[in-house]
Structures are given as C-alpha cells and as structure tokens.
Design goal:
A: 511 residues; alpha/beta; B: 346 residues; mainly alpha; 72% helix; globular; ABC_carbohydrate_import_ATPase (chain A); transport (chain A); P-loop_NTPase (chain A); ABC_transporter-like_CS (chain A); ATP-binding (chain A)
C-alpha cells in the first residue's frame, strides 16, 4: 500500500452492525477512510452501502460496533452531530431549497450575523469565497433553481465542505449528470482530495469509479468482502466480488438477449399511438409496439421519455391524438383502463410512485392483481403466500421474507417487487421506466435477462433507459426523444451504436 | 412481545385500571343486580360503547389519510331524528315505531356520509375542511330538528339500544361488539383493508396500480357516518332524550385520540381496529378515573390532555429509544475517558 498505510485513517468503522425488522443490513462491517483519498463503496443492492452511509451520517443508529473519527471513538446521534464532527453528505437527490439564493443555500443554518440579524453582504462574500475555492463559476446571488441539477449538486457539495468537512460522502452524485457535468464534478472532487478531504464515493458507474477512486471497499450481503486498491483489481474481478461469484463479464450474459425482431415487422401491432400528445409535456408522436417486441425510448433527462410513456398508461391525460390497442381505438383516461387493456407500468420513481412502503412485500406484490379484482373478491391468504413466495424465488428477491416491509428492501429488490406485482397480472405490454437505474450490476443483468425472456414469450415491452448500451442490448427498435419531441425511430439492425444514437439526440434529425 | 402493535395500548389500559384500584378497592368487582351485570368495568364498557363505534369509523377514515370532524354532529342529528319520530308517533312504545326511527336516523346519516365522501373524493376538498362544514352546520341541523328543545321520549324498545340489557349484558356493549366484529370481517376477510391501507399509505402509487381510490374513500366516510349514527342512537336512548346542543359534543376529538392511542398513524396507511377499541376504552377509562379519583372538574381537561400525551409518547418507539439512550449515555459518561482511547488504539 502507498503512503496511506502509514497515515492514520480519518474515519474508521469496526464491526458495525445494523438490523431492521426481518433484515440484517450490516453484519460486523469494518471500513477505513484515509485523508486525501477518494474511496469507492461498492456492492450490489442490498449489500448494505446505503445503510453504512446512513449509520455514518447518524440517520440510523447502529446496533453494534464502533465508529472512530480522528482516533477517537464517537457516537453519531444524528445528521447534525455528524456534520459537526466533520462528516458531510451529499445525496442523490439534492436536499436544498430551490427558491433561495445559492449563497443562502450554502450558509443556511450558519449565516453570519451582525446585531442579531443576518449579515447579508458578509453572507454573499463568504459564499462567493467558498465557490471560488473550488474553482467554480456560480453567481451566488441567483436563486438555486435557476441552475441545472448538476450545478445544484455542486452547490450542495460547496455547502457540505464549507463546514470544514474532513469526510465528504457522495451518494450516487452522478446518476443524473451528463458527461461534461461529471467531468466538472470530478475536477471539484480532485481539488478537495488534494486539500486533504477524505471522499467516500458511491456510484453504479464502474468506469467512473475506476476514473476517480484510489481505493475501494466491497460489501457483499451486509458483510465486508474486502478492501482493494483500484489499480490492483480488474473490473471483471470487482464485479465477481460484488456478486460473490466467479469472475465473468457482466455485459455478456444478456448480450444473447439481443435478437433480431423475431416476430419482426409482420407481427400485428399490439398498440399504436397516432399523434398522441399532452400540451406542455410531450409533442405529438406516433409509436407502434408489436407483440413480442421491445421498443426503447432514449433521450436525455427531461426529453419527454417518461411523459410519452405515461400517456400510454393513462397516468396523464392526453390532450390530443389517439391510441389503438389490437386495432380498436381506446380512451386511456385512467391507469385502471390501461390495466384492463393489459398494460403495466413500472414508474421511474419507485418510492413515491411505485411502492407502498409501509406494506409488506407480499401485499405490494398482490396489490395490482387485487386492485383489478376489486375489494369484494379477495385473494385468499394461502393464495397470496403462494404468489409472493413463487415470485420471491423466481426473481431472487432478498430478503426472501414475504412479510418484510418493502421500504426496508434495497433498490434492486424493490424494483423486483414492482416487476413481480405486474407480472402476476399477465400484461401484454410492460412499460419499464428506468428499471435498472440506481441498482447494482447483478440485479441489472437479471432484470435485463427477464425483459428479454418476457419478450421472447410474446410480451411487448416499452423500455426507457438513460443507458444507451442497455437500450441497444435489449431493444428491437429505439425511439429517440429530444426536447419533448420524438425525433427519430431507429431499427436496431446491428449498425446502431451508442454514438449514433447520441448523434441523433444531439442533431435532432433522422440519421 | 413488546413489538406487538397492541402491546402498549394494552399496558396503558391495564395501568389505568390498576391505578383505579388504589382509589376504589372494589373497582374490579362485578356483581349481578336485578339480573344485570353491574360494576365499574361494566360501566366503562357501557359508556364507552358509543365512543368505540365512532372511533371505529374514524379509524377507516384516518387509514385513507383523511379525518372526519363531523361525527359529533352526526351523533346529535341521529339522536334528534329518532327521538323526534318517536315523540310524534301515536304509539312510542311499539317496536315498529322504534325500527322506523332507527331507519330514519341511519338513512339520514347515509346521506350525510355520502355528502362528506363526495366532497372529499370527487370534489377534492381537504378532508378536514369538508367535514368541518358538517361539523358546524350539523349542530344547527340537529337543533332545527329538536326545535332548540330537549326532546324527551318514553319508549321501552328505544331505551333498549343504549340503556337496556340483554342476557345480563348492556345491549350497547353487545351492539358495539357485533359492529367491531363485522368491521373486522369486512376489512380483513375482504381486500378492503389492504386497499384502504394502500390508498392511505401512498395515494400516487395506488392510482398507478389501478385502485379506484375515490369509491373507497367515499365508502369510509359513509361508514363513519353510519357508525356515528348508531352511537347517537345509543347516547340518546341511554338518557331517553335528544339534545341537539350537547349530544356527542367533542366526541370527534375523543375518537381521533382513541385512534391515535390505538396505534393508527394520522398520516394514513396501516390501521389497527383492535388498537382503536383499546384506545377508546383507554379514553373512557380515563374519563371514569377522573370522576372516581375526584380530580376537580375545572382541571379534568388538563389532566386528560396530560395523560393522552404521555400515552402517545410511551407508544412512540423513537421516544422510548431516546429515553433509554439518554439513560445509558448518562451511565457511559461516568466511565473514565482514557479507557476509550485505549480501546481505540488496541
């Protein structure tokens, strides 16, 4: 190990343990973080990454083990104590006040005061100084929501390090950023690292981890798998350690899924949208989805992918255009009508739009089927158990306890619960909005394989993803959206590459 | 066992009853007098029956994330209508008259419930506002029905509902038990409970999963009004009179308290009928306790408020954890500090 081993870790965790009802999230995990390094925390969903972070930031009290900060055992009782102790966190979703100015956001809660009142000019000066410290060009007097998500994320980082943070935790900071924004973020991270800040970086993008991180800690099923220098662990080996199996290339298994449109162009269309639109959300678009076909929607964040899909599910009302299902014109006024026509929808935001957090895995799985049957025709308890256990096994949902509360599950397992919920209704068209976002490689590969298998059995799938490789791997055709408009529909005939899709997004023209 | 949902409400009820024993040595005594069960515990069940019913309806409303403030007024209206019909009838003591009066009260309650349900589920008025309308206006309606007077009735069959006995047990208690059991069957043997919890737990997700929430929501307001109407019949029957002004006054607050004490969250989602029954009995036992231990009348509300907040805090896992942590951290800080650094370096 380099010089770091001679140093004392700024943060050390020993034998930490955390249990939730029915789940052991962390089981005796050790973890070290040295000053002046970028350290990746790796693991599949459910490996315990989020829980470890929440323990470190005082969101969850630990059930055992100790946290040592600067050589002293500490007890982190809450997020505020964590900040005061020098541990700052920036979460995936920006937790700032969009209507306040950048300067206020940076210093809120610790505003400089004069005569008991806020010293505004000093506040702006200090905020501008901390922004300049990180080589950023942001007008601190402008309201936060006048900036993009990426800049807001940077502001959150400025706020986090302004309290002389020794440890900065970045939880999935890059998931909604484009390449240029990621580069900018990495520049800030390197600068902070050189100032001696220890950065804990959590990301599902392996390339980014390899680009920015010095060392990594791998968790597996709530236990410590190992600690590695980034340069000494090949990506293939990392993936193997994360999923706890033999080294294999994660991309390959599902590559077989990429098939020529099997039932092809002559299969009857299951759904046809003509000039479907919703003003302010999505411009008129035409789209045909055939039985057994996987149609992808690609485009940047906010390009109208989700909006287009929501119209097909009746989640939003269309303001014009028509939809035909199996040749007959239908009016998709509510999700209920769409469901009755055999359409299922897994929304992008699992927590707020998908799951009922305080209900159990079993209840969440049977919910769609039960809703379709109505409350007077209940599924019996034994039938519910059968269904739940069957799908827990079929999709490998962990923990395998149908009575566990769904909110205690990790992201990937929650996604599988959602899939199970819809698959038991035996849909003809499955709309998946970012089904693999924020979930680990193992679960991702499983979900991709599942999608390919379902399409092979004749189900139509509308697959929305920001990851072009994934779209190319799974889809027979790819609709490209840009600025709330469907600009192109490209057959995935083997000549399509991520670069050509990106070129279409960029130019907005048929290539 | 402490993790069971009903554990803390049951403990609180037991403590409350035991506390009474200290003041009233024969508190737990149950005697048979004139073929009727008689004793303080029976009184709590008897006088608690209307509250149990109102709280039961309130539980389902709260499970959907709503609230029903109009139940007190519905209690008054139902009692007033029934008593008015009986007092105007040719033969107040005939069973037919009483059945008709009950039917009228329930039918009007149905209409009131539908009105609440439509306002909340269709028009989209916030539940607290929608039901506040009937809470305020309903008192006026009740007084209109009674003509601003207290209507007194003399009717044997009507007296049975709230004040009579059947098989030595107060009829009101039997009625409440039956309604509780039916409600439990209705919610847990059908999928109603699951769908209500889903709608209350996450309305957006529930819509996307295809649950027709508006029908369910309207249904619980109707159910709540019907429960309140039965409670209103019990209350007016027990005193053989209808008082538009005071019948069921503030019962909505006791009912909400009972639901909360019983462990159902005001934000909606998971609900517990058993918890609500215990909660209602806790509130009733508390009222009884206040009388028996002789709290001065002017401080009863303060006393009640104090007990209720204590009960809520005891039930909160976060509060208990905090209290325990505070105590253990006090003992820890007594340990010499250097010891900890040694551990850290070891």
């Amino acid at each position: 190990m380099p010089a770091q081993s001679a140093q004392q870790p700024v943060l050390e965790v020993r034998g930490i343990r955390k249990e939730f009802p029915g789940v052991v999230a962390l089981d005796g995990v050790d973890f070290r973080l040295f000053p002046g390094e970028v350290h990746a925390l790796m693991g599949e969903n459910g490996a315990g990454k989020s829980t470890l972070i929440k323990v470190l930031t005082g969101v969850h009290p630990s059930d055992g083990g100790e946290v040592v900060l600067d050589g002293r055992p500490v007890r982190i009782a809450g997020p505020l104590q964590a900040q005061l102790a020098g541990i700052s966190t920036v979460y995936q979703e920006v937790n700032l006040c969009p209507n306040l100015s950048v300067a206020e956001n940076i210093l809120i809660g610790r505003e400089p005061r004069r005569f008991g009142l806020v010293h505004w000019s000093e506040l702006r000066r200090r905020a501008a100084e901390s922004v300049a410290d990180l080589d950023l060009d942001i007008d601190v007097s402008a309201p936060l929501d006048s900036y993009s998500t990426a800049v807001q994320q940077l502001v959150a980082i400025v706020r986090a390090v302004e309290v002389s943070a020794k440890v900065l935790i970045l939880d999935e900071p890059t998931s909604s950023l484009d390449r240029e924004e990621v580069r900018q973020l990495f520049a800030v991270m390197r600068r902070l690292r050189d100032q001696g800040v220890a950065i804990l970086f959590v990301s599902h993008f392996l390339d980014q981890v390899y680009e920015i991180c010095d060392r990594m800690t791998v968790l597996l099923g709530g236990r410590l798998e190992g600690e590695y220098l980034t340069g000494e662990l090949r990506q293939v080996d990392l993936v193997a350690r994360m999923i706890g199996g033999e080294p294999s290339d994660p991309g390959e298994p599902s590559d077989s899924a990429r098939r020529e449109p099997a039932e092809g162009a002559d299969a009857p269309p299951f759904l046809r949208a003509d000039g479907l639109a919703r003003s302010g959300a999505i411009e008129p678009y035409d789209l045909t989805i055939r039985s057994g076909e996987v149609v992808g929607l690609a485009g940047l964040l906010g390009s109208g992918r989700t909006e287009a899909a929501r119209l097909l599910f009746g989640a939003d009302h269309s303001t014009r255009g028509s939809v035909r299902i199996e040749g007959a014109e239908v009016s998709l006024r509510t999700p209920r009508t769409a469901i009755s026509h055999g359409i299922a929808f897994c929304p992008e935001d699992r927590k707020t739009e998908g799951l009922i957090g305080e209900l159990t895995v079993r209840e969440n799985i049977v919910l769609a089927l039960q809703a379709a049957r109505g409350w007077t025709r209940p599924l019996s308890g034994t039938r519910q158990d059968e269904i739940a256990l069957h799908w827990i096994r079929a999709l490998g949902i962990r923990p395998g306890n149908p009575e566990a509360l769904v909110r205690n599950l990790s992201g990937g397992n929650q996604q599988k619960v959602l899939l199970a919920r819809w698959l038991i209704t035996d849909p003809k068209l499955l709309i998946l909005d970012e089904p693999t976002r924020g979930i680990d490689v193992g679960a991702k590969a499983e979900i991709q394989k599942l999608v390919a298998d379902l399409a092979g059995d004749g189900m139509s799938v509308l697959f929305i993803s920001a990851e072009l490789e994934e779209v190319l791997r799974l889809c027979h055709r790819v609709g490209v959206l840009r600025d709330r408009r469907l600009v192109a529909e490209l057959p995935n005939d083997g000549s399509l590459t991520p670069e050509s899709i990106m070129a279409t997004i960029a130019s907005g023209a048929q290539s | 066992m402490t993790k069971h949902r009903l554990f803390w409400p049951a403990v609180v009820l037991a403590v409350l009853l035991l506390a009474n024993l200290a003041f009233t040595p024969d508190f737990f005594a149950i005697r048979i007098k004139d073929g009727h069960l008689y004793g303080s515990l029976i009184d709590i069940l008897h006088f608690g029956a209307p509250l149990v019913l109102v709280a039961l309806g309130m539980t389902l409303v709260i499970a959907t994330g709503g609230i029903d403030l109009s139940v007190g007024s519905t209690v008054a209206i139902a009692g007033a209508l029934a008593c008015l019909h009986i007092s105007e009838a040719a033969d107040p003591a005939s069973p037919g008259t009483v059945v008709a009066s009950v039917a009228i009260a329930l039918a009007v309650a149905l209409v009131l419930g539908v009105a609440n349900g439509v306002l909340v589920a269709r028009v989209g008025v916030q539940p607290i506002i929608a039901t506040l309308i009937l809470m305020v206006a309903g008192r006026g309606v009740a007084q209109l029905v009674t003509g601003g007077q207290i209507i007194t009735v003399t009717s044997g069959p009507y007296r049975l509902i709230g004040g009579g006995y059947w098989l030595a047990v107060p009829f009101a208690v039997l009625l409440a038990v039956v309604v509780v059991l039916l409600t439990a069957l209705l919610t847990r043997r059908t999928a109603l409970g699951l769908l209500l919890e889903s709608v209350g737990g996450n309305p957006v997700a529930s819509r996307l999963v295809g649950i027709r929430a508006s029908g369910l929501i309207a249904l619980v307001y109707v159910f709540s009004a019907l429960c309140a109407a039965v409670a209103g019949l019990m209350i007016s029957s027990n005193v053989s009179s209808a008082d538009g002004n005071n019948a069921g006054l503030w019962i909505e607050l006791d009912a909400i308290l009972a639901v909360v004490v019983g462990g159902t969250s005001l934000t909606g989602g998971r609900f517990s009928l058993g918890g609500t029954v215990l909660g209602a009995l806790i509130i009733q036992a508390l009222s009884t306790t206040i009388y028996t231990i002789g709290i001065p009348p002017e401080t009863t509300l303060v006393f009640k408020a104090f007990v209720v907040i204590t009960v809520c805090l005891i039930q909160s896992p976060a509060f208990r954890a905090k209290a325990v942590r505070r105590r253990s951290s006090a003992t820890r800080s007594a340990r010499p500090r250097p010891l900890k650094t040694e551990e850290a370096e070891a």
